[in-house]
Amino acid sequence: MRGAMFRYAAVSLSTFALAAAVIIGCASDRSFQPTGEAGRLTARPGFASRDQFASRAMQAAMPPTREELWVIEKRPAQQEAAPATQPVPGCGALVTRNRENSGFVPIPLKHTDVSASISGYIASVNVKQQFHNPFSEKIEAVYVFPLPENAAVNEFIMTIGERRIRGIIREREEAQRIYAEARGQGYVASLLTQERPNVFTQSVANIEPGKAIDIDIKYFHTLTFADGAYEFVFPMVVGPRFNPPGSKTGIGAVAPSAAGKSGQSTEVQYLRPEERNGHEISLVANIDAGVAVEQVECRSHKASINRTSPRQMQVTLDPADNIPNRDFVLRYKIAGSAPKAGLLARRDEQGGYFTLMLVPPENLGSLPRQPLEMVFTLDVSGSMSGRPIEQAKAAMRYALTHMRPDDTLQIVRFAGNAEQMAPTPVPATDESVRGALQYLEGSSAGGGTMMLEGIRSSLSFQHDESRLRFVSFLTDGWIGNEAEILGELRRSLGPARVFSFGVGNAPNRYLLDHMAKLGRGAAAYLSLQDEPTEVMADYFNRISHPALTDISIDWGAMEVSEVFPRQTPDLFVGRPVILTGRFKGELPSVVKINGRVGNERQVIEAPLAASDAATDARALPAVWARAKISDLSDQAAFDPGPSADFLQQVRGIALEYGLMSPMTSFVAVDSLTRTAGGHGTTVAVPVPLPPGTRYETTVSE
Amino acid sequence: MKSLLVLLLLGMLGSTQPPASQTVESQPATSPGRFVAVDVFIDAGAKSLAAYQFELKAPGPDVALLGVEGVPDSGFNDPPYYDTRAALNRRIVIAAFNTGSALPSGKTRVATLHLRIAGPGEPQYAATLQVAADADAKAIPATISVAEGATR
User: A167, A288, A450, B12: most buried, per Cβ within 10 A?
Assistant: First the structure.
């Protein structure tokens, strides 16, 4: 039957629909989630009348003191029985609860279920967010959450009971207006907006007491390959951002008691360390690497790994490790040192799409490097205090003691401002290394994150022409003015190469990856579970050999256009890169890579391995469109001239391919379910801080 | 039920896929609108229905698609797909297929479209069935009808 239908799709239907169906996948298992707890109620200090509700709800948002929080709460049956005389059985009540006495904070998000299918280097991920209303009045739930920065989000389904409604991609402002209108008229509706490439807001309107609404989001993305291993990352929480004074478009980090006080366009509420919200996460990843897997490792979480064949496995997050407070990071090493250069292609009625994994030539590893001018830029802001700064220092100690005498070094540290160790980089003699180590040990974390100053201090000084300048940033990247930072980096970069190290368990991967991309370097991540010396040793291995630079590709008979990244990144030892583009004509069996190693030109013929049988080419149009949106968004942010033109192009490509973007949003309205009364109280989902993060230095009360 | 229009298509219409267009028409939802559901029925007679594609037109007021819903126990439970390229030009083109064995025959409600209607006048719905097919990928004669549903 399935074969017949696919034949049908190819021969006669010629519609978008089956193509879309194939891309998105056929039916997935959906299960009805039981609605809210059939609980009994307690009321402290007493029941509120309906008229009292509104004013008390306001108090819920803005309590008079930080010690006491007003919440609308329905208690689980097992916690406390309701008095027999309870006036409105089955309804909730407005209660006050002292935050110091109870750690449980009821929220409208019960569970997140993540199901990933990884084939080759492309992941297809379904995220099911299970919202419910544990309160006694109708609510709107608002949840700010992360996704990978290169996620091509192309499916959005709202489930109400057994009914499943596919959301529609629309221009962002239009989607917001429609959602607001539907919410105001009492319809169940949902809206997904993108605040950053890796930060999204989910709003679900008119959830009645005890009811549940699921939202399924599906996306594709390419995995990174570094130092012999693929890495699959699922971020679970948005780390608390610092926003420079005067900023209005950042991401505020506040306590629930300070809701709305950040003054930022997006705001995340954080639980206090002793609080729990009951939101749990489950995750299963089915992996077909296409080649034999030698080693699988998940340092971030407890996970079970079931190897079903040499190249296939299922990885399941341990149910005991179900608090979504840090990135899930899975690495798996494949047999051999690196994958072969591989071209993956797909044609449809719109033309051809491809991805090419470009692998560094093997001879790079045998060539010595030039002397370096090494700048280490350390984030010593408040969010780095505790374990993160210690991890970063340990990594830097390794780096400082592995430099060559003909290198020069500089340390820049930034928090509320930036400070250099020396006026100019100093030769990496034993004496200056000892001085650098002392300077490092004297660094403690505290204060704001004026990263702009750190960027300027690290890049804006006279370049030593006899050395390559490598600037390494060690930071969690928890700032809200990413565009400003990236713009400054782009302006100040000069001949430098930027390597970013994301420190901690939920770093801002969008910022760190983008810094490395703009800086023609590479990003690496140093979680609190990683061994700092290993991470830095990999970096030193990478930079101990020259990179292949100024790369151009001879595609042969293949007519290639719109390849992203627009400028092919340099190839460092151990760091393949993935290009994606459009094509016409025949697929080549070999491509010629032209580049430069030092002052010498190199031409390398890269035979293209038959595409990984496992890799799923159906995602290629979405992957390409997402890369184009990223490129256009960069141009809108950084290039002189009318950014509106670029943004209009973003809008057009996102609507055509049905993708989330800064200009487009998914909206779904259930026009069959109209609830009574107003749109209820807006309830944000407060989230836990990533482990190792100090509440008092990162969250505004 | 405010309007009903039945449009019969016997046999294949062939592909009516619109050419790809970069034209983006924006008709923001500025005036107050009302939200309605439109149920879509396909009658394939004695044949089993495994796939369909149709276009919904509603001349008159501004009509925006806000959701596409399948129908439990109809053979088309999963939400149908909509054509994003057609949507660029405010066209509503919907399709679905069923690779399972429980295929419906006779008149079956296969989808519900959630719409926002704004502006003067009532929409006159007109659905055009572009293709219906059986499990062997063969076109089958079928009719389509639509009806505005009431809030449930």
Answer: A167
- What are the distances in angstroms from CA A43 to CA A61, A63, A652? 19, 18, 52
Check whether A337 has a pLDDT greater than 70: no
Strand ranges (DSSP E) for B81-138? Answer: 81-82, 92-97, 107-118, 126-133
Contact in structure between B99 and B16 (CB atoms under 8 Å): no
- A433's CB contacts (< 8 A; 6+ apart) are A400, A401, A403, A409
A:256-295 residues touching chain B, CB 8 A cutoff: none
Helices A451-459 and A482-492, interaxial angle, to 10°? Answer: 10
Query: Could you tell me which residues come within 8 angstroms of residue A262 by beta carbon, excluding any fewer than 6 positions away?
Result: A243, A250, A252, A253, A254, A700
Phi/psi for A594 (5° steps) reads -100, 130
| Residue B39 parent element (H or E) | strand B33-43
Residue A62 and residue A259 in contact, taking contact as beta carbons nearer than 8 Å:
yes
A254 reaches B (C-beta below 8 A): no
Collapsed DSSP state (helix, strand, coil) of residue A481:
coil
Which of B:13-52 have CB within 8 Å of A? 15, 17, 20, 22, 24, 26, 28-30, 32-33, 35-37, 50-51
What single-letter amino acid sits at B86?
Answer: A
What 3 state SS string does A218-256 have? Answer: EEEEECEEECCEEEEEECCCCCCCECCCCCCCCEEEECH
Query: Cα A518–A523–A528 angle (5° rounding)?
Result: 145
Does the interface predicted TM-score (ipTM) exceed 0.90? no
pTM: 0.85
Per the model's pLDDT, the better-predicted residue between A491 and B3 turns out to be A491
Strands (E), A151-223: 152-160, 163-166, 168-171, 187-196, 199-207, 212-222
The overall longest dimension of chain B from CA atoms, in Å, is: 47
Q: How many C-beta atoms lie closer than 10 Å to residue B114's C-beta?
A: 28
Cα–Cα distances in Å, from A571 out to A524, A594, A698? 15, 12, 37
Does the pLDDT of residue A33 top 60, yes or no?
no
Give residue B124's pLDDT.
92
Three-class secondary structure assignment of A9-76 = HHHHHCCHHHHHHHHHCCCCCCCCCCCCCCCCCCCCCCCCCHHHHHHHHHHHHCCCCCCEEEEEECCC
pLDDT (tens digit per residue) in B105-145? 999 999 999 999 998 888 999 999 999 999 999 999 999 99
d(CA A303, CA A609): 33
Nearest to A56 by CA among A40, A72, A74: A72
Instruction: Give the mutation candidate from B69, B77, B90, B140 for the A interface (greatest A CB count, under 10 A).
Output: B69
Distances A236 to A112, A202, A469, B44 between C-alpha atoms, Å: 10, 14, 35, 47
Torsion over CA: A245, A251, A257, A263 (sign):
positive
Residue A359's alpha-carbon distances to A547, A697, B14, in angstroms, are 12, 42, 45
Inter-residue contact A471 to A496 (CB < 8 Å): yes
d(CA A40, CA A92): 8
Residue A154 · residue A622 · CB < 8 Å: yes
Provide the pLDDT for residue A68: 27
> Per the CB < 8 Å rule, is B112 touching A651?
no
The C-alpha atoms of residue A362 and residue A701 are separated, in whole angstroms, by: 54
Chain A residue closest in CA terms to B70:
A164
CA A351 to chain centre: 30
Chain B CB contacts of A668 below 8 Å: 66-67, 114
How far the first Cα of chain B sits from its last, in Å, is: 13
Distance, C-alpha A416 to centroid of its chain: 26
Q: Which two tokens stand for residue A427?
A: 């030769």
Per-residue pLDDT, B21:
28
